[in-house]
User: Fold this.
Amino acid sequence: MLQEPTNIGRRIYDLRIERDVQQRELAKAIHLHQSVLNRIEKGTRPARDAEIRAIALFFHVSADDLLGMASVPESSPDDERIGSSVSECTTGYDTSPTHPPASRKRISPEEHDLIEKYRELDNRGQTTVRHVLYGEYRYLQKQQTDKQGTPM
Assistant:
Protein backbone atom coordinates (compact mmCIF):
# COMPACT_ATOMS: atom_id res chain seq x y z
CA MET A 1 0.00 0.00 0.00
CA LEU A 2 1.41 3.39 -1.05
CA GLN A 3 1.53 5.98 1.72
CA GLU A 4 0.97 9.68 1.24
CA PRO A 5 4.14 11.70 1.83
CA THR A 6 4.24 13.54 5.15
CA ASN A 7 4.12 17.30 5.04
CA ILE A 8 7.83 17.54 5.80
CA GLY A 9 8.63 14.93 3.18
CA ARG A 10 6.64 16.88 0.62
CA ARG A 11 8.32 20.14 1.60
CA ILE A 12 11.77 18.58 1.24
CA TYR A 13 10.82 17.19 -2.15
CA ASP A 14 9.38 20.55 -3.26
CA LEU A 15 12.53 22.39 -2.16
CA ARG A 16 14.71 19.93 -4.04
CA ILE A 17 12.70 20.29 -7.22
CA GLU A 18 12.42 24.07 -6.95
CA ARG A 19 16.16 24.47 -6.43
CA ASP A 20 17.13 21.74 -8.88
CA VAL A 21 18.87 19.56 -6.29
CA GLN A 22 19.08 15.83 -6.89
CA GLN A 23 18.12 13.53 -4.04
CA ARG A 24 21.58 11.97 -4.13
CA GLU A 25 23.20 15.42 -3.86
CA LEU A 26 21.12 16.42 -0.82
CA ALA A 27 21.66 13.07 0.88
CA LYS A 28 25.41 13.34 0.44
CA ALA A 29 25.50 16.94 1.67
CA ILE A 30 23.67 16.09 4.90
CA HIS A 31 25.49 12.77 5.43
CA LEU A 32 22.45 10.59 4.96
CA HIS A 33 22.00 7.52 2.79
CA GLN A 34 19.89 8.30 -0.27
CA SER A 35 17.43 5.50 0.54
CA VAL A 36 16.80 7.07 3.97
CA LEU A 37 16.13 10.47 2.40
CA ASN A 38 13.83 8.78 -0.10
CA ARG A 39 11.81 7.20 2.71
CA ILE A 40 11.59 10.54 4.54
CA GLU A 41 10.27 12.23 1.40
CA LYS A 42 7.75 9.44 0.85
CA GLY A 43 6.62 9.59 4.46
CA THR A 44 7.56 6.02 5.34
CA ARG A 45 10.20 7.17 7.84
CA PRO A 46 10.04 10.20 10.12
CA ALA A 47 12.82 12.76 9.93
CA ARG A 48 14.95 13.05 13.04
CA ASP A 49 15.75 16.40 14.63
CA ALA A 50 19.35 16.43 13.38
CA GLU A 51 18.17 15.58 9.86
CA ILE A 52 15.60 18.38 9.88
CA ARG A 53 18.27 20.81 11.07
CA ALA A 54 20.74 19.69 8.39
CA ILE A 55 18.14 19.96 5.63
CA ALA A 56 17.04 23.40 6.83
CA LEU A 57 20.65 24.60 6.87
CA PHE A 58 21.28 23.16 3.40
CA PHE A 59 18.30 24.99 1.89
CA HIS A 60 18.66 28.11 4.06
CA VAL A 61 15.14 27.82 5.43
CA SER A 62 13.96 27.52 9.01
CA ALA A 63 13.15 24.18 10.55
CA ASP A 64 9.73 25.69 11.27
CA ASP A 65 9.18 26.06 7.52
CA LEU A 66 10.05 22.41 6.97
CA LEU A 67 7.66 21.42 9.74
CA GLY A 68 4.86 23.59 8.34
CA MET A 69 4.98 26.08 11.18
CA ALA A 70 5.82 29.15 9.12
CA SER A 71 3.21 31.45 10.63
CA VAL A 72 4.31 33.83 13.33
CA PRO A 73 2.18 34.23 16.48
CA GLU A 74 0.38 37.53 16.73
CA SER A 75 2.12 40.07 18.94
CA SER A 76 0.34 42.45 21.25
CA PRO A 77 -0.59 45.84 19.75
CA ASP A 78 1.74 47.60 22.22
CA ASP A 79 4.75 45.55 21.14
CA GLU A 80 6.42 47.03 18.06
CA ARG A 81 9.35 44.67 18.32
CA ILE A 82 9.58 41.26 16.72
CA GLY A 83 10.92 39.99 20.04
CA SER A 84 10.64 36.26 20.55
CA SER A 85 9.18 35.77 17.08
CA VAL A 86 12.56 36.50 15.49
CA SER A 87 13.55 32.84 15.49
CA GLU A 88 10.40 31.96 13.57
CA CYS A 89 10.77 34.79 11.04
CA THR A 90 14.46 34.48 10.25
CA THR A 91 16.82 31.67 9.56
CA GLY A 92 19.81 33.09 11.39
CA TYR A 93 21.95 33.39 8.27
CA ASP A 94 22.28 37.17 8.21
CA THR A 95 25.90 37.82 9.08
CA SER A 96 26.35 40.97 7.03
CA PRO A 97 27.80 43.92 8.95
CA THR A 98 25.21 46.28 7.41
CA HIS A 99 22.35 44.49 9.17
CA PRO A 100 23.22 43.92 12.83
CA PRO A 101 20.51 42.08 14.80
CA ALA A 102 19.57 45.25 16.70
CA SER A 103 18.49 46.93 13.46
CA ARG A 104 15.69 44.39 12.99
CA LYS A 105 13.92 44.79 16.32
CA ARG A 106 11.29 47.05 14.80
CA ILE A 107 9.10 46.36 11.80
CA SER A 108 8.09 49.19 9.52
CA PRO A 109 4.46 49.39 8.33
CA GLU A 110 5.60 48.28 4.86
CA GLU A 111 7.41 45.24 6.30
CA HIS A 112 4.34 44.39 8.36
CA ASP A 113 2.19 44.57 5.22
CA LEU A 114 4.60 42.24 3.38
CA ILE A 115 4.52 39.74 6.25
CA GLU A 116 0.72 39.74 6.23
CA LYS A 117 0.65 39.14 2.47
CA TYR A 118 3.26 36.38 2.81
CA ARG A 119 1.11 34.64 5.43
CA GLU A 120 -1.83 34.55 3.03
CA LEU A 121 0.17 32.68 0.39
CA ASP A 122 -0.01 28.91 0.10
CA ASN A 123 3.11 26.78 0.61
CA ARG A 124 4.13 27.11 -3.05
CA GLY A 125 3.86 30.89 -2.92
CA GLN A 126 5.79 31.14 0.33
CA THR A 127 8.50 28.87 -1.06
CA THR A 128 8.76 31.04 -4.18
CA VAL A 129 9.08 34.22 -2.10
CA ARG A 130 11.79 32.66 0.09
CA HIS A 131 13.65 31.44 -3.00
CA VAL A 132 13.69 34.92 -4.54
CA LEU A 133 14.60 36.55 -1.23
CA TYR A 134 17.53 34.21 -0.59
CA GLY A 135 18.71 34.62 -4.18
CA GLU A 136 18.69 38.40 -3.84
CA TYR A 137 20.40 38.20 -0.46
CA ARG A 138 23.16 35.95 -1.83
CA TYR A 139 23.60 38.43 -4.69
CA LEU A 140 23.94 41.29 -2.18
CA GLN A 141 26.47 39.33 -0.12
CA LYS A 142 28.49 38.57 -3.26
CA GLN A 143 28.46 42.25 -4.23
CA GLN A 144 29.66 43.23 -0.75
CA THR A 145 32.36 40.55 -0.82
CA ASP A 146 33.51 41.69 -4.27
CA LYS A 147 33.75 45.30 -3.08
CA GLN A 148 35.73 44.32 0.01
CA GLY A 149 38.09 42.12 -1.99
CA THR A 150 38.84 44.78 -4.62
CA PRO A 151 42.30 46.38 -4.11
CA MET A 152 42.27 50.15 -3.71
User: Anything to note?
Assistant: Residues 72-104 have pLDDT under 50 and may be disordered.
